[in-house]
Amino acid sequence: MGKVCIGKIVSTHGIHGEIRILSDFPYKEKAFAVGNKIIIDDSIYEIETYRVHKQFDMITLSGFTDINQVLPFMKKDVFILEEDLDLGENEILDEELISFKVLTNKGEEGIIKEIFKASEANKILRIQLDREILIPMNSPMVEKIDKEKKEITIHLIEGM
Description:
Layout: E1 3-13, E2 18-22, H1 28-31, E3 37-40, E4 43-53, E5 56-61, H2 67-70, E6 77-81, H3 94-97, E7 101-104, E8 109-117, E9 123-128, E10 132-136, E11 142-146, E12 151-154
Parallel strand pairs: 7-12
Antiparallel strand pairs: 1-2, 1-6, 2-5, 3-4, 4-5, 7-8, 8-9, 9-10, 11-12
């Protein structure tokens, strides 16, 4: 279990040490929960408050009450320990999917090489079989993801 990047600090908000984070992390409600520990520059801090403002995630850290205390954090990445996320059975991080074994309905085997965003709501899996294919993550072609076996089962359509 390692660190997972959950966003980047882009600015402060107000004079009381509130931090503005830009994040596209899929499990924000778990990552930014009050009381969670986050990591900035290998130091651990506790989240005291959390709210959403426009497209930003706004937090304050325990013991930080002034803008001048949080200015050194600007433009830094924010991490959380993977075990602190407490993901459910059907929740998986993109980083975990990379290198999962891929099984197809045609008996082929491959591996997930990359995951990228086609849009805000659509992730694409780049899969290496004997050829490279692209599959939308939320497609009905993705039949099953088995976290324990580190396998994903896909149903290839005619012509793939």
